[in-house]
Amino acid sequence: MSSSSRYDPVAKSLHWLMAALIIGLWGVGLGMEELPKGDLRSQIIGLHKALGVVVLALVVVRLAWRATHSAPTLPATMPAWEQLGAKLGHLALYGLMIAIPAAGILMSQSAGRDVNVFGWILPTLVEKSDDLKEVFGEAHETLAWLLAVVLVVHVVAALRHHFMLKDDVLSRMLPRRG
């Protein structure tokens, strides 16, 4: 593991790809249940499920990459409590990026529905159960809202570092210019 002052291109690509997917999934998740029943709604829900599984797979890739490629060190001027907050925030993000798709998969399966990932059906992990469907559905929704809060804190913290503290915390995750 080597440490540098910036994230490497793979880490940056995974970060921004997952950010786009998660924001899109969150937005679609807000409105898809309100759509009238029919083919469009079924297709959107199917895409939401498939991309949720993609996010779960990308988290595994990202964690494997992170295990072999260390993150840049935090600025020496950052207080210990803030460094702890950054570490706990990242831990929360990773945990939620695993828990939300897992709850979604289990919600679908406990409702008796397959999870089709672009033609590949996930193995069924739970039997049909209205009670479990409710539990996993509530977990999926509640954790998605929690993720939204954690993401807002993450973005505000990054912007604070960039515009107020004027350190390199945000710029080390941005693509290089010219």
Automatic annotation (TrEMBL):
Pfam families documented for this protein: Ni_hydr_CYTB
GO molecular function, one term: heme binding
Domain Cytochrome b561 bacterial/Ni-hydrogenase, first and last residues per copy: 6-175
Cofactor: heme b
Localization (cell): Cell membrane
Assigned keywords, A-Z: Cell membrane, Electron transport, Heme, Iron, Membrane, Metal-binding, Transmembrane, Transmembrane helix, Transport
Segments crossing the lipid bilayer: 14-32, 44-65, 85-106, 143-163
Cellular compartments per GO CC: plasma membrane
Membrane-related topology note: Multi-pass membrane protein
Gene Ontology biological-process entries: respiratory electron transport chain
Family in the record: Belongs to the cytochrome b561 family.
Name the UniProt record assigns to this protein: Cytochrome b
Organism: Magnetospirillum aberrantis SpK
